[in-house]
């Protein structure tokens, strides 16, 4: 029979997504500088240098050979024969009637330490990244420098019952993400892929991060 055409995956390559992130950072920084900064030669030169670096990073990303997008997002697919279509429909109807989840589906997998640590690594990374961006943009949006607000928080005499858990959460996230990132780097070297090694390194990272987080929280 004649070939049919169906859309294939049109997801942007990683390099294009990275370039878009750089572009967004440049636009946001430019708007913040334009709206919130008073004309100051020092800060103007610093921001100009930062924007220049971001522009170069975006340009170098886009100029890589692997950044080229495919010319089309259509892939040829042979037409199903008369017997294949009914068999496929019967298969899906049977699974639907038996309430079977289709793989891959997160609800059919049992969560293990490797799964939880992988998800937690990404969550802590996103949270720490937002904190870094927030602290970086805060001086442009506030009237005082960072030490002023630190002293203001200390003057509030917040109860340790509230302050210590907050400090522990921040400290543990930083320690966990750092240690687990080092664990990922060892995997890049081809080390620690056996199941026992995965579990041993995972429990080690959890234990050390909890201890370091507790120490930093009570400082």
UniProtKB/TrEMBL annotation:
Topology in membrane: Multi-pass membrane protein
Main subcellular location of this protein, as a coarse class: membrane
Top-level taxon: Eukaryota
Keyword Metal-binding: yes
GO biological process, one term: tricarboxylic acid cycle
GO molecular function list: electron transfer activity; metal ion binding
Subcellular location per the Swiss-Prot or TrEMBL entry: Membrane
Cellular component terms per the entry's GO annotation: membrane
Transmembrane segments: 14-37, 161-179, 199-218
Alphabetic keyword roster: Heme, Iron, Membrane, Metal-binding, Transmembrane, Transmembrane helix
Pfam families found in the cross-reference section: Sdh_cyt (PF01127)
Presence of keyword Heme: yes
InterPro entries on file: SQR/QFR_C/D, Succ_DH_cyt_bsu_CS, Succ_DH_cytb556, SuccDH_FuR_B_TM-su
Protein name, as recorded: Putative succinate dehydrogenase cytochrome b subunit
């Amino acid at each position: 029979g004649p070939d049919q055409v169906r859309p294939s995956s049109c997801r942007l390559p990683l390099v294009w997504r990275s370039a878009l992130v750089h572009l967004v950072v440049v636009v946001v920084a430019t708007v913040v500088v334009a709206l919130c900064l008073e004309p100051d030669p020092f800060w103007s030169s610093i921001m100009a240098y930062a924007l220049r670096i971001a522009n170069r990073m975006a340009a170098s990303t886009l100029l890589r050979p692997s950044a080229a997008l495919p010319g089309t997002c259509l892939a040829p697919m042979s037409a199903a024969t008369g017997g294949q279509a009914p068999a496929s429909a019967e298969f899906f109807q049977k699974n639907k009637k038996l309430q079977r989840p289709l793989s891959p589906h997160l609800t059919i997998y049992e969560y293990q330490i490797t799964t939880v640590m992988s998800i937690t690594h990404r969550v802590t990374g996103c949270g720490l990244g937002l904190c870094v961006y927030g602290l970086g943009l805060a001086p442009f949006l506030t009237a005082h420098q960072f030490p002023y607000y630190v002293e203001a928080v200390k003057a509030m005499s917040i109860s340790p019952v509230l302050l210590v858990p907050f400090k522990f959460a921040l400290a543990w996230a930083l320690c966990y993400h750092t240690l687990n990132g080092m664990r990922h780097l060892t995997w890049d070297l081809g080390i620690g892929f056996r199941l026992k090694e995965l579990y041993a390194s995972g429990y080690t990272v959890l234990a050390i991060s909890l201890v370091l987080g507790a120490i930093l929280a009570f400082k």
